[in-house]
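Q: What does the assembled structure look like for these inputs?
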Amino acid sequence: MAFLVTSLIFAVVGIIASVFTRICFNQGPSTNLLHFTLVITATVCCWLMWAIVYIAQMKPLIVPILSEVE
Amino acid sequence: MAEIGGGGCCPPMDLMRSEPMQLVQVIVPMESAHLTVSYLGDLGLVQFKDLNSEKSPFQRTYAAQIKRCGEMARKLRFFKDQMSKAGVSPKEFLGKDVDIDLDDVEVKLGELEAELSEINANNDKLQRSYNELMEYKLVLEKAGEFFASAHRSATAQQSETESQQVVGEDALEAPLLQEEKSVDPTKQVKLGFLTGLVPREKSMVFERILFRATRGNIFIRQSVIEESVVDPNSGEKAEKNVFVVFYSGERAKSKILKICEAFGANRYPFSEELSKQAQMMTEVTGRLAELKTTISAGLDHRKILLETIGDKFEQWNLKVRKEKAIYHTLNMLSLDVTKKCLVGEGWSPVFAATEIQKALQRAAVDSNSQVGSIFQVLRTKEMPPTFFRTNKFTTAFQEIVDAYGVAKYQEANPTVFTIVTFPFLFAVMFGDWGHGICLLLATMYLVLNERKLSNQKLGDIMEMAFGGRYVILMMSLFSIYTGLIYNEFFSVPFPLFAPSAYECRDASCSEATTIGLIKTRDTYPFGVDPVWHGTRSELPFLNSLKMKMSILLGVAQMNLGIIMSFCNAKFFKSAVNIWFQFVPQMIFLNCLFGYLSALIIIKWCTGSQADLYHVMIYMFLSPMEDLGENQLFPHQKTVQLTFLFLALISVPWMLLPKPFILKKQHEARHQGQSYAQLEETDESLQVETNGGAHGHEEFEFSEIFVHQLIHTIEFVLGAVSNTASYLRLWALSLAHSELSSVFYEKVLLMALSFNNILILIVGLLVFIFATVGVLLVMETLSAFLHALRLHWVEYQNKFYEGDGYKFDPFTFTLLGNEDE
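A:
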């Protein structure tokens, strides 16, 4: 559940970023497509990294064992 | 001309493929040739082909002009040398190009050179006489001392002998001796003497040789000069001694003279009488003072001359270099003698056609020629150069990709995705948001001051860092993100987003150090849980996480690479490449390593305890057997068998059909042409003389087959090795976090534990230096290098050919940085 919510947040941030880029750096269709590609790639990379780390901790097989405090 | 281009799989995107280029031919009349080339150089969008490549540099049309420019450049270099020796720096020239005539500049340069050489020669002569006079002065002083002391001792001796005579020894002999002695001073043999200076290191040898050459019939006295003297011949300081040589006879004199010359000992005249010595002394001192003023006046004059040169130096320099470049280019155009015009061929982007035509028109008008220039596009089968229009942000990334190989004309440019994935993979290996912030601050300084810094001349390393400022900016932004995910701020975790998910099993926390904590709350929402740092099971957990993450990211990037090859196949309309290369490659990679990625995700989602090593190994070794504890999802055995089978048939699928299909295509293309080949050979010869285009196509089946075999083996074996290669993402990130942790715990915390302000300051300094030196500089370079390798090898070998050549237009903007 939290996973889906956060993934949705990532998607929304990505869309907002691409709209923002389109508004601020409007330089013709082919250049806009390049900007859009870059923003989407960055969003996907960031989401991928977050998702991997999140899913890896959902059902852990190893638990933290604290070290001896002196 | 781009005959093979066409619709890709998506609408056109900037930077994805090279700009379409065309071969253009320009015919200019002779009178407007110079101006035309100058305007085209200002435009900077034409790469001229050398049409006179068979001619030697001396046979070319404008060889004389280039020699003129070379002469002028030599004079300018001479001026620069003189200016730097005198400490005058040329004035910065940033203004617009004032129209100065090259002939005027040539004349002016000649005049100035003559004047400067004259001043230099005069200066040298004056300096030489000054040094000689200095030496003479020293000789006068030292030899004068010697003669004075000798005179004193001679008079002392004389009074002694006189006193002895009074004693009266032998009556018979004494009168004889007396007479002899009294006669001696008046009837002496004429002794000559020479004075001069000899270098100190040669003085002993000098004395010895003089002694031997004159058979001991000389008397020499040397006296050391304390300070070093400037030698008139060499102009350098040397240690010298003053010597006085007494001899008798002409033969001895000539020998001594020759020996003096051989040893480089300068001789100076010296008179015995005291009055004359004093006179010479005053004369020499007077002349020295005169010379000094003359020399300083000369130097002032020279300085003024050099300053006037310095004012105009940069302007002239630029003009001469520009002219030289124009003449070099003019030499590349071929002379059409019958039509009294020059023909030039070159590559230029299609979008620049109108601008080029405008420049040609302007040049024709400005040079008052009756005939305008002709501009036409040629058709050719040659491969055009690759041209990407980059701005200050994308230039650095494009250069990184170009360093490995320039893209073939119109193939997909890896830079498009590299702009994001390269900083991202760097950040995966660098993840620490504290270090990321430091890197960001450093690069923001470069970016905010870029206008000022781009005009300065920076050192080599700063030049590289400045050129890559946007790359480093992206790297630092992504590092801050991955640092937040790894939850490391100088290796210290913070529970920024929620409290940690783990708690003690019971209230007393008795088993925290043996069995460990349990997960009570929801998963930590963003990143690695902060509880892990410092625990005993931190490394097993993080290693497992990072290794699996590396595999997942690696498989994703490799799939992206194969999809880029699909885009290429679509663009070049090669169905063979789609069905017999792209499809089997996708199937092979995803049936094996895509399946592994899916297993990783399934294991994480279900929390299964199955060991993925065993799953994969038994999938290959004993696929038909029961899975037992390796079961992760229902019907796994069927799925594995299917994937194994698909992977197995994809190998011959990518190896065998393509060469046969290519052979059939080649035969179909050349079927109707076997009879017309005789005529074609003539045409193809003509085409070749125009620029070496490949008119005839050869098809060696064995070569194609071997090529495909190598390609297949590379892909199949590379699938395993490249996937494993991505594990360096894990390795470097582990190294970074461990180094960071060591510096924090063993330096900073230990310094804090002593409760001493001095140790604290020392510890802080060591921590700062270690962080900057090892982590911010060395680790940055290391992660940069490895991210680069991952892109160049593992990503690009899925689709990139990179055997094109870069578009190198004729332009004046680069002249400012040349031959420094």
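The two ends of chain A are 41 Å apart (CA to CA).
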